[in-house]
Amino acid sequence: RYQDTGEDWPVEDGYGALVAHHARGLAVTLRTPVTRVAWGGTGVRITTSRGTIAARAAIITVSTGVLAADTITYDPPLPDWKREAIAAVPLGRANKVAFAVPGDALGVSEPTAITVRVAGSTMIVRLHPFGRDLADCYLAGPICRDLEAAGEDEMVETCREALVSAFGSDLREKMGAVAATRWGHEPTVLGAYAAARPGQAHRRSDLAVPLADRLYFAGEATHPVFFSTCHGAHLSGIAAVESMHGRR
Description:
CATH architecture of the largest domain: 3-Layer(bba) Sandwich
Structural class: alpha+beta
Pathway: Plant hormone metabolism; auxin biosynthesis
CATH topology of the largest domain: FAD/NAD(P)-binding domain
Keywords: Auxin biosynthesis
Pfam families: Amino_oxidase
């Protein structure tokens, strides 16, 4: 069901920079976690770390990982059919470990992507992305889940040894600074991309169904063909806003 636009590419300055640029000029408040959403009665009251917000309606865009974890209390609770839809489209596991590596240490000078064996599985490694002296390791699936659970140090060292095995022992002392993600342990996300369970892809549409014309839902997990992407999340947000205004 996924529709590939052929234009879903990495961003040199990071996807976060693209999103921030797109939202420039908007009144966005960061680092303000929500703990409670009361949607009974005639409106919505949202409790945050900085106080309570009252509104006629709200669009919920947190991941299915956060929805399933119940870190936000809904009053009244979300109906069973909505919770079943959340459980049907859980977040998978995907992480990156990037090493600073001088260009001559890798034997290539142009941006290249290869696969490397790691702990009985494989990972994709991007060499010199955007011409930078980096080796960017991409982990997904069970191996990613296991290494993430083992901790960042274990994940980094496993990737380091995999690269040393692929390029030779001389590489080890040339490898510099490291940056790593652990999205499954990031409390505002609790996973990577949403992946429907077998036979449950149709539940994405249930995720997007609003509740009582007060709670609307958006995010990549709700999009029927652009799931797992930033543009899918963006388009689902536009659809939620249009649906909200159409019901007013």
